[in-house]
Amino acid sequence: MPVDSQTQALLDQLVSLGGQPLSAMSVADARRMMEMMSAVRGAQVEVASAVDRSIPGPQGEIPLRIYTPTGSAPFPILVYFHGGGWVLGSLETHDGVCRSLAAGAGCIVVSVDYRLAPEHRYPAAPDDCYAATQWVHAHASELGGDAKRIAIGGDSAGGNLTAVVAQMAHDRGAPPLVFQLLIYPATDARYDTPSYRDNASGYLLTTDDMRWFWDHYLGDAPERRDEPYASPLRAKSLTGLPPALVITAEFDPLRDEGEAYAARLKQAGVPTRATRYDGTIHGFFGMGAMIDKANDAVKEACGTLRLAFTRR
Predict the structure, then answer these.
(1) How confident is the model at residue 40 (pLDDT cuts 50, 70, 90)?
(2) pTM given for the model
(3) CB under 8 Å to 3, separation ≥6 — which residues?
(4) What angle, rounded to 10 degrees, do the helices at 157-172 and 124-138 form?
(5) Which of 40, 65, 213, 299 is most buried (CB neighbours < 10 A)?
């Protein structure tokens, strides 16, 4: 189907503003741009509290932001990993998404400010995200949460980290996870799918942008592209992983690899739902103030999380 009218209006507005493509920017300029874009938000979703703190990590402190919904403890918990190609993003850029998930799913959301590339290349990000998930499990009651109802989730690079942390937790035997929310995840460090060719440019995220992200993330170790903790689609087996919701967008270079990962989860016997949002683009999930389909996707994610948290 064609690009929907709201998404097209956004793309037209971005074109009118001009500016360099992401892949032509310095890391510092790209980070500033993402922070500026995230500052343009709709009405802030209210939660009972949003508290910043730090926890010990593999190589220093890991900042967290802990969102608690209204209601009575103990709450289920979602550990959330933000997108940004492992290079961009922060607690601030995904504040709105985390608030919406906490309020909509009735769960504590722990947003993880993992180390970014190129200063901290792979496997720094998955190591931090796994360590944060372990910490949340160990300290669930302190947070007002339930250690038996912990899910993980993330968008784009955060979707990649979600898939990777789910594999790590399975491979290492802990912590137990009840669900994984994968929002247009990057699952393979290759660029050979039809969606990469068909959506190479003109739809916000480009193929050149993804090359830029992967090059910063892996640096001078391109041979690591096939490691499953970098490219989770390359894992030999996905058996035993937690149930999943995989959300993709029609006009997204990452569409096919996200859907391929969902198909492999299903083949491995993992209860999985894959939903493609036609007519829209990578990044739409956090654009509810401009794109109605974003609100539909957030509603689907929250409803699916609520159901997963009842299946203990």
Answers:
(1) low
(2) 0.98
(3) 11, 203, 251, 279, 280, 281
(4) 60
(5) 213
